[in-house]
Specification:
Length: 47
């Protein structure tokens, strides 16, 4: 669980610098990206 949180924080930090937004916005974008990735992978695997 700790590695997942650390991974989300690192991605949020990268997006914060790449897009010149706040850390909060980078974290929100990170959550959206990860949620979409998990949803797509879940749909591909279950069919």
């Amino acid at each position: 669980m700790g590695l997942i949180v650390w991974n989300l924080i690192i991605h949020a930090h990268i997006l914060r610098h790449a897009l010149a937004v706040s850390f909060f916005m980078g974290f929100n974008l990170t959550l959206i990206i990860h949620f979409l990735s998990f949803s797509i992978i879940n749909q591909l695997v279950t069919k």
